[in-house]
């Protein structure tokens, strides 16, 4: 069952944005002095959500030097810069927000996502390094450990005295976490756990901070107690001494240069019977008692595994937030450039034409800006929902599953959009876009990894489909083919058509539109919402029918595989609806009429662009006539023209301070190089 | 009027592939020993074309060390490696093929494109550096100079004693070449030309080899003789002495790190009244006589300008060839990985499932392989056509315009496909795909620039539309808005529906299919061809009508701009047809039945994938029913399943020697790291 997140949100700015005194920036710090237009400021306010004040504070207090890295630094220099910047994050209170208050945190997991997001406005190496250290390592200790673990491991983490890494992925298994091969074997003789890499393919790889900096690792492995195996558990294992030397039994490697993230030292870890005290097992959901027996409140190995994996939800939300920010940043750079750069004279026009005035350029950037706004609202919703569920005294399993599903789906669709959009922006800046000093190629290379880390996008979309088929009632694994086929047969209902956000409003709009059908204008929000919901319903119903027909097949791989494209389509159409409804709900909360009008236009542009992209489907399924399909394109062009005069406000509203854009071509002192007015 | 290139092709292998003795590789050189399957070998033979033996020779004789660069080299190391590799290219006869025979060349411009293409199988920095030196600089001297220029500048070029660069782009103007601001002013007192950068925005930028290595530059600028300006001309200007120091009046800068191409030293050049002898003006189309008067066989400044720009055609063909190769390489890496990498167990199956067996993975890679084959044939056609026109005693202006149009269009569509495909391949390899050592991120970063250099893709597609509207009868500038609107009114006929290649066959197939309409099977080549041709015809006719209606508008910018998306669509649909017809013509030349059958299947997969991508258009314009639109998707899945068993042969056929893939994860000695069979 889906629930509305908007309705249960209690905005409480002021109280929950206060930072610990120790972390507060000094009054003498340089502060950015952005001059925004009223509309730009209004758009920022409208997209800030519950954590708007946290975002405003970061923008106002953190100087660009902390946030942006010199693109010419080599790998060693970038790694050093990142470590230094990590210290600044602590100083500015942008670290450990999700930790328990007992160890200096704020117990605010939503805010920890916002901290991650704000670093992504600057440099993604810093984002990922801090995300690994505070979010993944610190988050695993927080969520899977007990108070002793918190006291022992989180305090030195927050003080940066002990750098942490998150050792899940192995050469042999990434997406398939259940099949990891590292072993955690309990030795009752010494009351220790022996951590071991039994095969070449069990070596941990791509582990951020493993190559150079990490002192300690949260290691995923199969727990063996006595004769029995209890599945994947996490053990905290020291891997380096204070001087940075590998500890006995630990072999560390460097993954070397990557497609980006030069400042993150990804590496490999191989364990040769490394012993740690039994207490190092993070035992919130399953541990070993003083008698050396395995104990857990959760009976089923499977359920325990998925409960532990559920803690991944924050990482995926963070990646979605980071990718959404990367898109906003790329669009900010390319749009600002398009407003300065001129090329080709036009008959009857003074001077060369500003790039932004070409229809083709508008079509490249303005619909993408609209979708970037949609993603901003969708991310806010899931970040706030994460914290709401965290604050609930009683855990709601279905709500938790729904959140996990949505986080997986948003991560997949937002990172896909991010990679495509950053590339579009880089190309829209011509040769200048290719120079590292202008920020776009670095951003593209850095953000690229989001497509495959914290869950491969193709795998994640399959999780979404499974969540939908089971009505969020089942625990989900990363890719359980038999499960997916069986859920379709057993449990699929029809609950998916409920609105995900601002439910009464959205249902009212949809119902009104349904009465008019194609008679409704393209601008009608109800018609747009109904199109998205109807497509999702149809795709999901036909998928369920198709899988159900094959539920008794001996070969469930073949049954699953033959419908895999349908599975992915179901997930995508669901996420399209979730994103659109988040946009609509976000507008509903906006009280500034001028801002609201602009957001309304952006929302329509986003919706029509999505409908146009899927025009083949809508027509093939008799959801849109040929005439209407053509009218959609004309309407998109018209909306671009309408939004063109406000495009600078729109990118101001995207929220990246200009000094954090780190793009040489936008600096005043060099713009004379190409401003035609200066030289003709 | 379009003409068939296939019909006039005379294959003459053996004679025209002989290399000068001095450049022949030594017998003692290490040679790659590729073991191909019969089908893989047959596919290579079928896609080799006129220059197949040149390609085979390069693959067989050039060792991987020459072709692939260590991904961990920093910028300085990469630049040094590239310079060293440049020497090897000369040694292996892969340089200067397009130069006149009088100076040691082969007078074979088609072959020079193939040399460029073959370097792209290895490292794109080497490709671009050699392309700038031999192709752009050497090509400008060859095409725009006289015998004295050839003797004086090409001999030291081929001997690598004088590194050349191509100084066209300025900060202020890239796409708009006619508006360049650098001045070439004739001084009759000293009989010299004064080369000058009069404004900050006239500084040359992004110039390959300018930052570090180039001794001499082909400089584009406005020629002034007496009181008159004669438009853009090219002057050869020494910029560095033999020790690498900038010459007096020349200021050189370094563009620094870029999105890729670490081995290419792009930089800036500013001229402060630099004097060169009058003889340094490349004067084939316009020069200064001994009396100091401007002389030219071409009366119109405009016509002369476009004739000179016509020499850009080879550069664009080379970029298309390079991008096509980059796609083939990425697909080779990702497919080979997908055949080794396993993830997730499947009920009832032994071991984890090979990635290539997932439908979603097949859909990512196999249709892209099919399109890569299509592009291979399309590139061959245009490369061979270039040489045919070069060999013709009488110049055919319309044929030349058509070639220029096609080169521009192929460059745009193939580089777009390249960037998308390399990214798909990188993501299909998960975390491993993100490591530089596995080759994909380096390739992606390097190939990225193809989208905007040698003509911005958006600008190039507009050239294509203009060529179509004018029936190739007009000279074309880079973006002439008034011209485009007026051509539509004046000259547009209907000649575009003629087949571009293998005309009788294609027209026969189309005609047969037209009689049956939707009754025809999706597999019918005639139906596919008719769909592409009909779409192009409709888009172009409606574009012409739309522009014609506004031909008298005062504001021709507005008239052009409001239809810009339509202009781009016209160009794309034309190029889609050109590419498909090249594929069909290529198959027609293949005599091996087994190979032909596979190519047929690939061609259908390519065609249906393209139709599916444009499904919205075909339905909105009543060219395809809803039922047929759905059937296309099912047929694509079926074709993927049919081609799955041959997918290794398919990538062998793409023609990149395995040792040139430069992908650590495909090396035998490291594959044990993750081959599940080795560790369970």
Automatic annotation (TrEMBL), chains A, B:
<dbReference type="InterPro" id="IPR012258">
    <property type="entry name" value="Acyl-CoA_oxidase"/>
</dbReference>
<dbReference type="InterPro" id="IPR036250">
    <property type="entry name" value="AcylCo_DH-like_C"/>
</dbReference>
<feature type="compositionally biased region" description="Low complexity">
    <location>
        <begin position="1"/>
        <end position="15"/>
    </location>
</feature>
<dbReference type="GO" id="GO:0071949">
    <property type="term" value="F:FAD binding"/>
</dbReference>
<keyword id="KW-0274">FAD</keyword>
<keyword id="KW-0285">Flavoprotein</keyword>
<dbReference type="GO" id="GO:0033540">
    <property type="term" value="P:fatty acid beta-oxidation using acyl-CoA oxidase"/>
</dbReference>
<dbReference type="Pfam" id="PF01756">
    <property type="entry name" value="ACOX"/>
</dbReference>
<dbReference type="InterPro" id="IPR009100">
    <property type="entry name" value="AcylCoA_DH/oxidase_NM_dom_sf"/>
</dbReference>
<protein>
    <recommendedName>
        <fullName>acyl-CoA oxidase</fullName>
        <ecNumber>1.3.3.6</ecNumber>
    </recommendedName>
</protein>
<dbReference type="Pfam" id="PF02770">
    <property type="entry name" value="Acyl-CoA_dh_M"/>
</dbReference>
<feature type="domain" description="Acyl-CoA oxidase C-terminal">
    <location>
        <begin position="529"/>
        <end position="664"/>
    </location>
</feature>
<keyword id="KW-0276">Fatty acid metabolism</keyword>
<comment type="similarity">
    <text>Belongs to the acyl-CoA oxidase family.</text>
</comment>
<feature type="region of interest" description="Disordered">
    <location>
        <begin position="1"/>
        <end position="39"/>
    </location>
</feature>
<dbReference type="GO" id="GO:0003997">
    <property type="term" value="F:acyl-CoA oxidase activity"/>
</dbReference>
<feature type="domain" description="Acyl-CoA oxidase/dehydrogenase middle">
    <location>
        <begin position="165"/>
        <end position="274"/>
    </location>
</feature>
<dbReference type="Pfam" id="PF22924">
    <property type="entry name" value="ACOX_C_alpha1"/>
</dbReference>
<dbReference type="InterPro" id="IPR037069">
    <property type="entry name" value="AcylCoA_DH/ox_N_sf"/>
</dbReference>
<dbReference type="InterPro" id="IPR002655">
    <property type="entry name" value="Acyl-CoA_oxidase_C"/>
</dbReference>
<feature type="domain" description="Acyl-CoA oxidase C-alpha1">
    <location>
        <begin position="310"/>
        <end position="469"/>
    </location>
</feature>
<dbReference type="InterPro" id="IPR046373">
    <property type="entry name" value="Acyl-CoA_Oxase/DH_mid-dom_sf"/>
</dbReference>
<dbReference type="InterPro" id="IPR055060">
    <property type="entry name" value="ACOX_C_alpha1"/>
</dbReference>
<keyword id="KW-0443">Lipid metabolism</keyword>
<dbReference type="InterPro" id="IPR006091">
    <property type="entry name" value="Acyl-CoA_Oxase/DH_mid-dom"/>
</dbReference>
<keyword id="KW-0576">Peroxisome</keyword>
<dbReference type="GO" id="GO:0055088">
    <property type="term" value="P:lipid homeostasis"/>
</dbReference>
<feature type="compositionally biased region" description="Polar residues">
    <location>
        <begin position="29"/>
        <end position="38"/>
    </location>
</feature>
<dbReference type="GO" id="GO:0005504">
    <property type="term" value="F:fatty acid binding"/>
</dbReference>
<keyword id="KW-0560">Oxidoreductase</keyword>
